[in-house]
Amino acid sequence: MDKSDNRKGKVFEPVVMCIIVVLMVIFSVKVKGEDDIGALESKKAENESKQAEAQSQAGELESSKSQLEQMVVNFNNQMESLAGELNDLDAKIKDKEREIRKTKKELKQAKKDEKEQYNSMKDRIQFLFEAGNTNYLEILMSDGSITENLNKAEYFSQLYEYDRQMLKKYQDTKDKISDKNDTLNVEKGELDGLKKDTEAKQVEIANMIAESNQKIADYQSKISQAESQAAEFEAKADEAESEIDEWHAESLRQQEESILKQQQLNAKNGETESYDAYNYTATELDLLACLIQAEAEDQPYYGKLAVGSVVMNRMDNRSFPDTMAGVLYQPYQFTPVTVNHRFANILARGANEECYKAAREVMAGNRVGSWLYFRMNDGSRVGTVIGDHVFY
Questions:
Q1: Residue 391, SS3 per DSSP
Q2: CA–CA separation, 51 vs 45, rounded Å?
Q3: 289 and which of 187, 237, 339, 355 could share a cystine (Cβ 3.0–4.6 Å)?
Q4: What is the pTM of this model?
C-alpha cells in the first residue's frame, strides 16, 4: 500500500470512529429516553382519564343541582301562590266573621222583637179576657148600640189577628236569621278548614325547600370536591406533558447536534451539496406553499425561500422522513403544523401567490442554503440570520 493510501486510511479511521461514537451516544440516549417517555405518556393519559372522569362527575352533579334549584324555584312559586290563597282566605274569613256578628245582632234583635210582640199580644189577650171582674161579654154589652158593640168585637178580632200575624212574622224572621247564622258558621268552618289545609301545605313545602337546599349544599360540596380533583389531575397531566415536551426538546437538541456534526464531517470529507429539480405533485406544492406562509408570511422573499429550502433539505437527509407530508407532520418540528394549527387554517383557504412562487422555485432546485433547522432569532443560536429567523 502506497503513502497516499496510508494517509487516506489515517484520515478515514478517526472519521469512522467519530461517527460510531456519536451513533452510540444517540442510541443510548434514545433507548433510555423511550422508557422514560413511555412512563410519562402513561402518566399523562392516566391523569387525563381521571380528570375527564372527575369533570364528568362534576357535570352530572351540576345537572342534579340545577334540577334541585329549579325545584326550589317551583316550590317558592307555590309558596307565593299559597300565601296569596291564605290572604284571600283570611279576607273571606274576616268577611264571614263580620256577617256572623251582624247576623247574631239581628238574631238577638229578632228574638227580642218576638218576645216583645208575644208579651204585647199576651197582655192584650189578658186584658180582653182577664180584665178584673169584667168579662168579654160585658164589654160587648156595655153602653152603646149593638152596632157599636159589634164594631168593638170586630176590632178586638182584628187586633188579635194582627197580633197573631206579627208574632208569626217575627218568628219567621227569627228562623231565617237563625238559619242564615247557621249557614255562615258552616261556611266559616269550611274556610277555616281550607286555611288550615293551606297552612299545612305551606309547612310541607317549606320543609321540602329546606331539604332541597340542604341537598343543593351537599351537591355543591361534591361538585367543588370533583372540580378540585379534576384540577389536581389536570395539573399532574400538565406536569407530565411539560416533562414530555422537555424530553422532546432535549431529544431534538441532541438530534440537531448529531445531524450538524454529520454535516461538518461531510464538509471535512469534501462532500458538497447539489440540488436537482424535484418532481412534485399539486398536493406537495400546496403543502409547501402553505407551510412557507405559516412560518414566513411576514418575512422577506429570501426568507420564504430559506424556509422552503429547509423542508427540501430534510427530505434529502436520512435523519428525516423522505416525503413532504412526513417532514411537515413530524411531531415537534413545525409549530404551525403540530401546535397552533395555523398551517391547517391556511391550507383550508390556500396560500398566497408569493408563497406558491417561493415553493415552486425551491422545488425547481433553487435552494438558498443547506440548513436543516431554523427558529426565531433571539441571539442564542449561531447561524445565518434572514429576517426574524436564524437558519443553521
A1: strand
A2: 10
A3: 355
A4: 0.47
